[in-house]
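May I ask for an example protein's residues together with how it folds?

___
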Amino acid sequence: MNKIFTLALVVMMAIFIAGALYAQSTPATTKPTPTTTTTPATATTKETPAPAKTETPKAAPVKLHQFTGLVSAVDVVANTITVANNKTTETFNVDPSCKIRMKKEYKLGEVPKDSKVLVSYKEDAGKKVATKIQIIKLAKAASKSK
C-alpha cells in the first residue's frame, strides 16, 4: 500500500512540475483575430494585422588587438604614438579616453621614447586606435627622478 501511495505521489509531482514548466514557456505566435463589423445592410469581416515585431540590429562586438614594442615617437599634437618591435613599426591614434598606466596614470606627452609598452587597440575605418596603453618598462633616462 505504501509503494502505491509513493508512486502516485511521484506521478502527481511530475505532472505538476511539467505543467509549471509548460506554463512558463513562450507562447507560440498567434494568427490575427478577425473582427466583424455589422452594418444594417451587410456584415463584413476584416482581419486585424498582428503587431509587427521590430528587431534592432545588434552591433558587432569590437575586436581588440594588442601590440608590444618600444616607443619610437610620440606626437602630442596629432595625438599619435609610434611603437616598434623586431618585426614591424606601428603608429596608433590615441583615443581621448585611452588610459596610459604603469603604477600611476600618465599623459601621452609623458611617455618617454624607448619605453616598452603594450598597446591594446581597435581598428576603425582602417586606422588603429589605441584604447589602452600599459607601460611595461620605462626608459632608463625617464625613470631617474630628481
Q: What stands out?
A: The beta strands are 34-38, 43-47, 65-75, 80-84, 89-101, 105-106, 116-124, 127-137. Residues 62 and 122 are 7 Å apart (CA to CA). The chain has a mean pLDDT of 80.
